[in-house]
Structure formats: structure tokens, C-alpha cells
Design brief:
The protein is built from five helices and seven strands; from the N terminus they run βββββααβαααβ. The protein is α/β, with parallel strands linked by helices.
Length: 222
């Protein structure tokens, strides 16, 4: 079977895994542990605040956004979802529509993973210490549907928030940072970080947007 080499394989590799994703694509993954990125030695520290509207806000003032589908791709995805709802279950046409949807979603996933790899590499090369909030993402993305006896509240809104968190790759970004900059990723207790001013350390609900001098809250700073 022919396949395309996407990168050189290290000499120490002794095993590999063949997988097939939801879009029907086959992948060959070789087991290798990459070398960590050397510390730049500049003493620079950066805080990374992960969000939904902005994927990663840096304490340097940079706002980074994970790429998603283009407007034309989003429109096509919406048409496919409507077509899927009308398709007869078990039909060949329904299977073709599902495959087309999977290919679009896989394209979005590939772009997000590529962005995470480039962003994590850039941060590891530029900063000696990287501070992030210690968020329990599995708990944050838990469904609010509840049970029949105790149904949840604001289920649709919570589902949208969950999708926003997952689409921005919160967990994978920190995971890759820890791989590339081991010992240089500091996890901060998120308690009150969005209400604490980095300049005066005053804790107040109004600090969530900004302080009187225009500074951003502590959660976006190291």
C-alpha cells in the first residue's frame, strides 16, 4: 500500500500504528518521543488565557484564534446537515451525506491541531515560563442535560459553551506545551483570576472587563 511521508522518521522508532479516522482516511503513526524545545534563556514569562471568543489571549497583548471552517464551508455543512435530516435511514444517500460531513469536520480538526502545534512551538521558543489557568476541562464540558427526574437548565446554552471550549482546543494546547516545554508550564489556580487587577491586585466583579486605568484582569497575565 502506498502512503505519503509527512515527515522524517527518527531512527529509534520501533513500532507504528495504523488507524482510520471518521472521514475514512488512513494514517500511519510512528511511536517516537520528540526532544523538548530548549529554553531561550531570556527570562521572559507569558500568561496564556484560554477563551471561547479568543482562543488564547497572551499577557503580551497578542490575541490568537484557532482556525475554523470558512464561511463557504460552514454554509455547505449547514446544507449537508439539513440534507441528512431528510435522508432515509439506512440508505446509500444518507451514508454519502454523513461521509461528506465527516470530511468537513476532519478538515476543521486538522486546522486546529496544526494551529496548536505551531502556537505551542512558538511559545516554547520565545518564553522561559508559560503560565496557564489550571482548568478542569472535563468537568467544564460535562453535559447539563440532567435526568428525567431532575432535568438540567439552560441545556442548549451549556452545549454551545461546551462546543466552544472543545473547538478552541483548550486541553490539547496545554498538553502540547507540557510536552515541548517540560517543567516550564506553570498552572495557576483560576479562583478569582478574572476579577483580579494585575496592576493593583484589587479583587472585584467589575475588574472582569477592565480596571479604571484600562488594564486587563490577572487571568490574561502571568
Amino acid at each position: 500500500m502506498r502512503f505519503r511521508w509527512s515527515r522524517a522518521v527518527a531512527e529509534a522508532v520501533k513500532s507504528f500504528r495504523v488507524t482510520r479516522d471518521s472521514a475514512g482516511r488512513w494514517h500511519v503513526a510512528f511511536a517516537a518521543i520528540p526532544e523538548p524545545i530548549p529554553t531561550p534563556g531570556t527570562g521572559e514569562v507569558v500568561g496564556v488565557d484560554r477563551g471561547v471568543a479568543v482562543s488564547a489571549a497572551l499577557s503580551t497583548g497578542d490575541l490568537l484564534g484557532a482556525p475554523t471552517l470558512r464561511d463557504t464551508e460552514k454554509a455547505r455543512l449547514l446544507r449537508l446537515l439539513r440534507k441528512l435530516a431528510r435522508a432515509k435511514r439506512g440508505s446509500n444517500g444518507r451514508g454519502e451525506v454523513k461521509a461528506a460531513i465527516a470530511r468537513l469536520k476532519a478538515r476543521e480538526t486538522d486546522r486546529r491541531k496544526d494551529w496548536i502545534e505551531k502556537t505551542s512551538t512558538d511559545l516554547a521558543r520565545r518564553f522561559d515560563m508559560i503560565a496557564v489557568e489550571d482548568l478542569k476541562i472535563s468537568n467544564m464540558t460535562r453535559s447539563a442535560r440532567g435526568t428525567i427526574d431532575a432535568p438540567g437548565k439552560n441545556v442548549r446554552q451549556k452545549a454551545g459553551l461546551n462546543r466552544g471550549i472543545l473547538v478552541n482546543g483548550w486541553g490539547l494546547l496545554v498538553e502540547r506545551l507540557e510536552h515541548k516545554a517540560p517543567g516550564r508550564v506553570q498552572k495557576i489556580n483560576p479562583r478569582y483570576t478574572s476579577q483580579t487587577c494585575n496592576a493593583c491586585k484589587h479583587v472585584a466583579r467589575e475588574s472582569r472587563e477592565s480596571c479604571e486605568d484600562g488594564r486587563v484582569p490577572l487571568r490574561a497575565l502571568a
